[in-house]
Design a protein that fits this description.
- The chain is an alpha/beta fold and 498 residues long.
- The longest helix is centred in the last third of the chain and has 23 residues, at 384-406.
- Helix 9 (257-275) packs parallel to helix 10.
- The chain has 16 helices and eight strands.
- The protein is 36% helix and 8% strand.
- The chain has two domains: 21-370 and 377-398, Histone deacetylase domain (Arginase, Chain A), CATH 3.40.800; 433-497, no CATH class.
- Strands 2-1-3-8-7-4-5-6 form an eight-stranded parallel sheet, sandwiched between helices.
- It starts with 20 loop residues before the first strand and ends in an 8-residue tail after the last helix.
- Substrate binds at residues 114, 164, 326.
- It comes from Lolium multiflorum.
Length: 498
């Protein structure tokens, strides 16, 4: 698809570069009904699309027209039992014992159940997952810089069970697809709830870093119980190959724009400098907005969108997904504005909501895109000391990742610090051939060739094994420690790497 020049440079981003944006919308998703009393209302996506259309943002994007995800594609992230249940389950075939083993409970319309049995459940899941999969492929193809699927972002679902209104974790599906093209993928979650399903799936995967900013602790609307899902403490840092690639930023209720910014910008600046992702997935759950029916944060639409603006500025392929959000007029306002941010038109769209089919939903906010924030103030626990502790704990964990990565590559290669301002302006360019010539005379630096042909994980393992054998005094030819397909790349004078 031809996309040259179909978006504008964002005046709020200093790089001044255009972005090629693609956008997914499936009207079939809007007709899904969780039940009359359920807080999850998929029609919020149709409302978002109505605003996007009325603000005339569609011509600035390439529309993604795609099929639903296939059963084979979903089989990669679901257990066999759960996949078959989702595929075959209807209100008419509901069996309590079988469904509840997978955390799918009562029939549609029962407000006491988070994950009801709904009509067209499999089709619904396949449609929103198919949108995220297609968006990831658009980024992988290089034809888009930013891809949007506001119907996605179902971050609580696990491979064998539903959770928190989420049945299939389309984020995991999209990240797996991105990994086919991009060596490192960063996942950032600004939903008010912890992104537990995504974190759990990639906790031991060194190619993916997950960062979640969320409400954590007891009290608030939930009384004396832990805020859902009760996970995501700062001490959860990943495991195995993924150690320190899990980063949680737990916050108290009442977090406002200024407080959020104090945490998000310095933490994400360090994450970008240390992990250096090749692609970013941002889950834009809108339940962190002020006035949400479930969330207890106090963010404005602009404050929420600052996260999109900041990550957009790095010029790394960016996938924007929806997520939570239960005051649906606020959700639609937010995601419409963030669509404008992605394109670069956020300063051009008026605050007055145009006439369209859903304008009556915005009466309580004065028919304004940027509705008034409830002045509830920050929780008493969110003192300067408390904020400093949250930020410092997160930065310490990023520093731990820095040290781990520094010692996971060739001992003679020093980790290069990144200039913050330069990193903010544009994505670091991939280094080209060096003037220093390798043994085969092709002009490519030996270390670059090892990374290109073998991959980061294999090269790191290679040097670790060389070091172990040197310590034992049993070192053999270094090239023999590499996988067979990589050995030809290793026949270089390794002293050139020192």
């Amino acid at each position: 698809m031809e996309m040259e020049g179909n978006s504008l440079p964002s005046s709020s981003c200093p790089d001044g570069r255009k972005r090629r944006v693609c956008y997914y919308y499936d009207p079939g998703i809007a007709n899904v009904d969780y039940g009359a009393q359920h807080v999850m209302v998929p029609r919020r996506v149709a409302m978002t699309h109505g605003l996007v259309t009325s603000y005339k943002l569609l011509p600035d994007m390439e529309l993604l027209r795609t099929r639903p995800a296939t059963e084979d594609e979903l089989a990669g992230i679901l257990t066999d039992d759960y996949r078959r249940l989702l595929r075959d389950l209807t209100p008419g075939t509901y069996r309590a014992d079988t469904a509840r083993r997978h955390h799918i409970g009562a029939l549609s319309g029962d407000e006491r159940n988070d994950n009801p049995v709904i009509d067209g459940l499999w089709d619904y899941c396949a449609r929103y997952a198919g949108g995220s999969l297609a968006a990831a492929r658009a980024l992988g193809s290089g034809k888009s810089d930013i891809a949007i699927n506001w119907s996605g972002g179902m971050h609580h679902a696990c491979s064998g069970e539903a959770s928190g209104f989420c049945y299939v974790n389309d984020i995991v599906l999209a990240i797996r697809e991105l990994l086919a093209t991009f060596p490192r993928v960063l996942y950032v979650d600004i939903d008010v709830h912890h992104g537990d399903g995504v974190e759990k799936y990639f906790a031991a995967d060194g190619r993916v870093m997950t960062v979640s900013f969320h409400q954590y602790g007891r009290g608030g609307k939930g009384g004396d119980t832990f805020f859902f899902p009760g996970t995501g403490s700062a001490g959860d840092v990943g495991e195995g190959a993924g150690k320190f690639r899990t980063l949680n930023v737990p916050m108290k209720a009442g977090m406002d724009d200024a407080g959020y910014r104090e945490l998000f910008v310095p933490i994400m600046r360090e994450v970008m400098g240390v992990f250096r992702p090749d692609a970013i997935v941002l889950q834009c759950g809108a339940d962190s907005l002020s006035g949400d029916k479930l969330g207890e944060f106090n963010l404005s639409v602009r404050g929420h969108a600052e996260c999109v603006t900041y990550l957009r500025s790095f010029n790394v392929p960016l996938l924007l997904l929806g997520g939570g959000g239960y005051t649906i007029n606020h959700v639609a306002s937010c995601w419409c504005y963030e669509t404008a941010v992605a394109i670069g038109k956020e300063k051009e769209i008026p605050d007055d909501i145009p006439h369209h089919g859903y304008e009556h939903y915005y009466k309580d906010q004065g028919y304004k895109l940027h509705y008034g924030v409830t002045k509830v103030g920050r929780n008493a626990a969110s003192t300067k000391e408390h904020m400093d502790n949250i930020r410092n704990e997160a930065l310490k964990n990023v520093q731990n990742l820095h040290e781990l990565l520094k010692h996971g590559v060739a001992p003679s290669v020093q980790f290069k610090d990144i200039d913050d301002q330069e990193l903010y302006k544009q994505r670091p360019q991939t280094s080209g051939p060096k003037k220093k010539r390798g043994r085969d005379g092709d002009g490519e630096d030996p270390m670059d060739r090892l990374h290109r042909l073998c991959g980061e994980a294999d090269v790191s393992n290679f040097f670790a094994r060389v070091g172990e054998e040197n310590i034992r005094g049993t070192a053999s030819s270094p090239a023999l420690l590499l996988p067979n397909e990589c050995r030809s790349a290793a026949f270089v004078n390794l002293s050139e790497c020192q």
